[in-house]
Every structure is written in C-alpha cells, then in structure tokens.
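Much of our argument rests on the idea that a fold can be written as discrete symbols. In the encoding step, the backbone of a single protein was reduced to a row of integers, each denoting a local shape. We regard such an encoding as a compact summary of how the chain folds. The record that follows shows the chain in one-letter code together with its fold in token form:
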Amino acid sequence: MCDTYLRGPSGVITSPNYPVQYDNNAYCVWVITALNPAKVIKLTFEEFDLERGYDTLTVGDGGQAGDQKTVLYVLTGTTVPDLIVSTNHQMWLLFQTDSVRNLLGFKATYEGNLSSVLGVCLPQKKQGCGLVWILSSQDM
C-alpha cells in the first residue's frame, strides 16, 4: 500500500509489502492521535514475523516518534505480541530493518476515537521503500 488514505474509527497498519517480505533498511514511522485527550489507543497484532534481534518494531506513548523516554515496547522475533494500550491519547510505532534477512513483517489493527494516523516509510541509505500512509477518522 503506497500513498494510501484510510478513514474510520479503526484501521490496519502493516509493514511494507505485507504479506510479502519487507525490504532491507526500512525505516517506517506511524503516529496515532485520538481527538479526545481522554481516550487511549489500542493496538492488536494479527501477524508478527520479524528477524529476531535485528529487525524491530518499537511502540511508544505520545506523538514524538523515537523518543526513548516514551518507549513502551521494543518488539522483535516471531511471537505475536499481546494487546498494547497507550497511557494517553497518542501512540507511535517505529519499524526498522537491517540489510540481511527479510521476513513477512506484521499486521496490526488500532482502535479508538482517532483523529489521525500519519505513517511514513522512508528508506535508510536511499534504498528500499518510499511509502507514505495517512489514516484518519472522526471523534464519535
């Protein structure tokens, strides 16, 4: 899915090329924000298949993707993670891969009264993907 726009109170986030193998040197960021600051974001994984220890999906609280102070989980390997719930109205995801082995990646659904989800997949070292996702919905 390249340059895809989705609308609704829930949606799907997948690694680049899913369900086919993801690219080498991928660097993807998604930020999920609920309109109502009293809401939280729920993230449920359906599939998860990353190269253990080398390819990671980091999940954090807030709107500042990559902020080490807000990291909730660093996920890797092939075990489908349990439900993840933010502690506030924002959640970020950062997907990073190395240049060696590619697996199938991940598929996750988010739920909540969301205002927007912005995701950008850019290649590290100008190789691989050039994907942009923007997902949004209205507060109910």
